[in-house]
Predict the structure.
Amino acid sequence: MDIIFHNEVITHEQVRECIKLLGDEYLDLPFQVIIYKDVAEVQKEWENEPNMIDRSYEDVIYHPDTAPPGICTGNPKMIRIYPFNIGVSEISELQELKFGLIYYLFHEIRHAYQYQHELFKDDTIYHPSGEDMVNYANSPAEKDAYKFAEDKVTDPFINSKIKEILEID
Ligand SMILES: [Zn+2]
């Protein structure tokens, strides 16, 4: 897994160590992980070198209430994490942001796993905005990814390891 970094919230090594906790089948997924710095960086990519459809960029940039903290695509094989979209209102501390980032990273990595193993491949794709919102939240792929991330971050061993890696309590 290739990790590209434009954000200083968390280090490259911390991200890699956390992904390692999921095992080699996740660490070895042929996906690129990008952790973005700010909305401006996403905007610039959309203008210069887009790698998602316009609707996805619109979801990230123009819908602050429902903006996804991450997006995974199977083509190209990319996991994008948007730390600035991680429940800004509920996050008061840097350590919560770091933990939230790992939670959403796990969620998106599960989507990468779904693509790689062709799970839910015949399901309709919904966007986390507008009239698709409810269908999106209830889709089997979403439920599976939420459950995966939740199970991992609440597993006592993994939970304590993540906190050790991120140096938070
Ligand atoms: Zn998802």
